Amino acid sequence: MDLAFTKEEQAFREEVRSFFRDNVPPDTRRKLVEGRHLSKDEMVTWWRILNKKGWGVSHWPKQYGGTGWTSVQHYIFNEELQSYPAPQPLAFGVSMVGPVIYTFGNEEQKKQYLPRIANVDDWWCQGFSEPGSGSDLASLKTKAERKGDKWIINGQKTWTTLAQHADMIFCLCRTDPSAKKQMGISFIVFSMKSKGVTVRPIQTIDGGVEVNEVFFDDVEVPIENLIGEENKGWDYAKFLLGNERTGIARVGVSKERLRRIRDLASKVESGGKPIIQDAAFREKLAACEIELKALELTQLRVVADEGKHGKGKPNPASSVLKIKGSEIQQTTTELLMEVIGPFAAPYDVHGDDGSNEAMEWTAQIAPSYFNNRKVSIYGGSNEIQRNIIAKAVLGL
Amino acid sequence: MDFDLNEEQRLLKESIDGLLTDSYDFESRKKYMKEKGGWSQAVWGKLAEQGLLGLPFAEADGGFGGGGVETMIVMEALGKALVLEPYLATVVIGGGFLRHAGSDAQKAAHVPGIIDGSKTLAFAQLEKNSRYDLFDVSTTAKKKGDGWVIDGEKFVVLNGENAETLIVTARTKGDRRDKSGIGVFLVPANARGVTKKSYPTQDGLHAADITFTGVEVGSDAALGNPEDGLALIERVVDEARIALCAEAVGLMDESLKTTVEYIKTRKQFGVAIGSFQSLQHRASDMFVAAEQARSMSMFATMAGDFEDARERSNAIAAAKVQIGKSLKFVGQQAIQLHGGIGMTMEAKIGHYFKRLTMIENSLGDTDYHQRRVADGGGLI
Q: How far, in Å, CA of A55 to CA of A77, rounded?
């Protein structure tokens, strides 16, 4: 057992850190620190900087543009990225559909899609959830019927994150209505500009627009847009969801937020002195930091295990990451609310780009608190995670 | 960065797990509890035979030169089997003082007896009003000739009944809560003026309240600098806290395992109660709590070697907080999921719960350590 990073790993951390310092546009960083939404341009600009450096799709196999880093290097990169902070790569392209395509797609599809995902020439969104299919994803109803050399797609998706920016969608569609639930589903990709696709934004409780409803009305999709085999889509979806085990803890995000809380708490006054001097507040902050330290160590255990024994058999501790990671993220936003006190109230009327620069930065704290309620719901709600632990780890 | 055990450490784990599987089932434990001082000389002898009592001592002193990870392995195994024998008091704490501050003569006088199992120690530190502050010492050690005269009262001294030698914190200078002027002394348990009142503790161990009345000790009694021993005490107590964290992880593992087995077999309404989602989620939360505790136990073990005393203490305090929170949850839920049978002395789960509960209140509870982390500027 040894907790220390090697000299090479430390040097790597320095390299990553200094690259961020020199290359993340300052305005982008500031907006993230203040919890503001970024415009599409701001995000794409940064991702292209990252891709030019060769770090856009760092965890992909080398032949498709990956870096060949060790699992510890990936961990360091992610931690630095989250805690600098800089925008994380667009998960829908880089972490989700990309790996499905290079693992199950044909050569033509790899050539067509992968470089464009890496450079965010196409913005991808995820067509999984439906109004009637949340945690019970396999009950989805969106249909793809084969007609000649086309799929005809009808149905509705929802919670489609950033679909308003999207050029492409990867979609789970029912292709065999007579088969058992999981068996008749296919994984089909198509352009969001296709005729018959309608996007309706959903305003969430933070006031912002991140998610959308997407309607398909006789959308015609070329037959070759099926990824892998027909009716095997459920397997690819499980592969996709199981791919990202450690990033989900978002330890770096919580670290950055705790630093910000400490900083604000030494400026904002309560009872004539900075809140940080209030023992009860300080202990709450310490309690959260300790939880986060434990989570960081749990994450390192999983990372070290993957590095040594491969990703094949997940470390049982990996199931802890989503539950604890989301709870801690939520606690950090609660602490921010506590620091800001009555100034949580003013509402920032969102402009088109999702924020009104004229408003005080404090106006973003309550929305961030409201918005973070989502983290224990998405990606398999925390209740689903507990089902998974009970079944897969405890054998109940 | 590596969280795996090396080959030797794996063998150590197998050997102690094997020994305890053979000699420490629940029924045997009840018998050991009735022996003098509340533990078994025969089991202690077996631990000695396997070299476990000499584990952390330097090879030059007759030991095996084991480090923090080795102690963690042993303590986890002792926790898992709910062991009564005084490993913490003798090897971790007593041994710790000797390793960090013992002169060659002191080591020669005490270490061989610890290693061969013929001698145990006890740490007489807690006072009536000191609670968790290690510097809060009213017991006095006054200079007399080359030696000292010790007066005062110590409480809940684990293994106080059986120990041949007591390690006593006493004030050589200053007032009750001064951080300087504290010494650490080796005192024979049969010295004139030492009186003991022994009793069992809630978790089945044995302790004693010990009064020192004009107890005279020689010049060779002081461990380290008798006027400035606080850093030494903090160091050894930090190591004891690390050991408690590991013991608690072993206890939690076994508690979770026992509980999961129970809800898989206990039937109500015609089905195993483990098929109910409310119970499954509770068990999953127990698993999460136990894993977070394991992570922090490993962190504390590695922090034991940190050079910077403040960083070391902060990390270990943080670990004790996590362990305290986790053990309370795991312990309480283990009883709840067992239902009525968990309330009885007949089921072993209650005994695990009681040991876990006592660990939270040992050497600083959750609030105490959380305050230390908060006042120390946090952890991030």
A: 9
Per the CB < 8 A criterion, the answer to whether B156 and B201 are in contact is: yes
Residue B126 near residue B229, CB atoms below 8 Å: no
Tell me which of B365, B367, B380 to substitute to probe the interface with A (most A C-beta atoms closer than 10 Å): B380
Nearest C-alpha in A relative to B289: A320
CA–CA distance, B363 with A177 (Å, rounded to integer): 64
Closest CA to B55 of B250, B296, B311, B239: B239
- B82 torsion bin: left (phi>0), alpha (psi -120 to 50), beta (else): left
CB contact under 8 A, B281 and A390: yes
Considering only CB atoms, B3 lies closest to which of A1, A262, A389, namely: A1
How confident is the model at residue B99, as a pLDDT?
98
Give the torsion sign (CA, A389, A391, A393, A395): positive
**Which residue is it, tokens 């584990």?**
B55
CB B319 within 8 A of CB B168: no
Collapsed DSSP state (helix, strand, coil) of residue A130: strand
Contact A113, A80 (CB under 8 A): no
A1 touches chain B (CB under 8 A): yes
Question: Mean pLDDT throughout B31-40?
Answer: 96
On whether the pTM is more than 0.95, the answer is no
Contacts of A293 in chain B (CB under 8 A): 296, 299, 318, 322, 379-380
Task: Return mean pLDDT, chain A.
Answer: 92
Give the 3-state DSSP-derived string for B66-81, with helices as H, strands as E and coil as C. Answer: CCHHHHHHHHHHHHHC
Q: What is the pLDDT of residue A352?
A: 43
Comparing CA positions, the residue from B142, B180, B315, B165 lying closest to residue B238 is B315
d(CA A331, CA A321): 15
CA neighbor of B118 nearest in space, from B57, B170, B162, B180 = B162
Kindly state the tokens that stand for B59.
């090879």
Predicted confidence (pLDDT) per residue in B127-181, tens digit: 999 999 999 999 999 999 999 999 999 999 999 999 999 999 999 999 999 999 9
B153 by Cβ neighbours in 10 Å (0-12 / 13-18 / 19+) ranks as middle
A384/B contact by beta carbon, under 8 A: no
Give dist(CA B273, CA B251) in Å, integer. 23
The Cα–Cα gap between A104 and B324 comes to 47
Using CB atoms and an 8 Å cut-off, which of residues 196-255 of chain A contact chain B? 255
- Taking the C-alpha atoms of residue B320 and residue A193, their distance in angstroms, rounded to an integer, is 56
Residue keyed to tokens 């503001």: A36
Helices A26-33 + A40-53 axis angle, to 10: 120
Each residue's pLDDT tens digit, A328-361: 999 999 999 999 998 888 876 654 454 555 556 6
Which distant-in-sequence residues (6+ apart) come within 8 Å of B240 by Cβ? B88, B92, B93, B96, B123, B363
- Between A and B, how many CB-CB pairs are < 8 A? 145
Position A389, amino acid: I
| Measured CA distances, A3 to A7, B2, B66, B92, B146 (Å) | 13, 6, 18, 22, 46
Best CA proximity match to A185, nearest among A124, A141, A133, A150: A141
Helix (H) or strand (E) run with residue B154 in it: strand B147-158
